[in-house]
């Protein structure tokens, strides 16, 4: 006879005093812990700042992200502008100052750009995100 997960949870765990006590400990000392809340707040702040930096200046993203964006961008005429650039790495970083300024608003609204930027940020480990934040906003010399 196979016992479904719902029956096992409802009958065995929910009526188990030890399980209920462990759930209370988890809620009081892990989930609602001020140190956990502080770390969650810090991580949210760091990620918001990193995203803000990339939206303010997309050229701060690494070349591999910008090269991928060039392949999938949906801004009219942008691929053609990038293809005209006489460099090995073809991406928006190497557009002229005027061309980039004219395209920037459309780039940061482009769904393809937002998806690639989001995927890049989502792939960051905690340590890497902190290092990236430090590089973007830290007090190291220029």
Element-level helix/strand string = HHHHHHHH
Give the fraction of residues assigned to helices: over 70%
State mean pLDDT (0 to 100 scale).
88
Task: Detail the poorly predicted runs.
Answer: none
Total helical segments: 8
The gross shape turns out to be: elongated
Quick one: biggest sheet? none
Q: What's the total number of strands?
A: 0
Termini separation: 69 Å
Cα-based radius of gyration, to the nearest Å: 23 Å
Please state roughly what percent of the residues sit in beta strands, choosing from under 5%, 5-15%, 15-25%, 25-35%, 35-45% or over 45%: under 5%
Quickly count the domains. Answer: 1
Q: What is the structural class? A: mainly alpha
Structure explained in plain terms:
- By secondary structure, the protein is mainly α.
- 70% of the residues lie in helices and 0% in strands.
- The chain has one domain.
What is the compact description of this entry?
The protein has 142 residues and is mainly alpha-helical. It has helices spanning 5-13, 17-31, 34-56, 63-72, 78-83, 97-109, 111-122, 126-137. Helices cover 70% and strands 0% of the residues.
Key terms for this structure?
single chain, 142 residues, mainly alpha, 8 helices, 0% strand
What is the element layout, followed by pairings?
Elements: H1 5-13, H2 17-31, H3 34-56, H4 63-72, H5 78-83, H6 97-109, H7 111-122, H8 126-137
């Amino acid at each position: 006879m196979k016992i479904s997960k719902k029956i096992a949870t409802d009958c065995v765990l929910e009526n188990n005093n030890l399980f209920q006590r462990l759930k209370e400990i988890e809620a009081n000392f892990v989930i609602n812990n001020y140190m956990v809340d502080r770390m969650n707040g810090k991580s949210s702040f760091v990620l918001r700042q990193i995203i803000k930096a990339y939206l303010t200046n997309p050229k701060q993203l690494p070349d591999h992200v910008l090269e991928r964006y060039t392949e999938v961008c949906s801004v009219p005429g942008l691929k053609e502008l990038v293809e005209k650039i006489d460099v090995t790495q073809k991406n928006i970083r190497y557009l002229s100052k005027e061309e980039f300024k004219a395209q920037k608003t459309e780039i940061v609204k482009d769904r393809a750009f937002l998806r690639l930027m989001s995927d890049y940020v989502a792939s960051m480990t905690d340590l890497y995100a902190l290092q990236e934040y430090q590089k973007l906003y830290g007090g190291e010399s220029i």
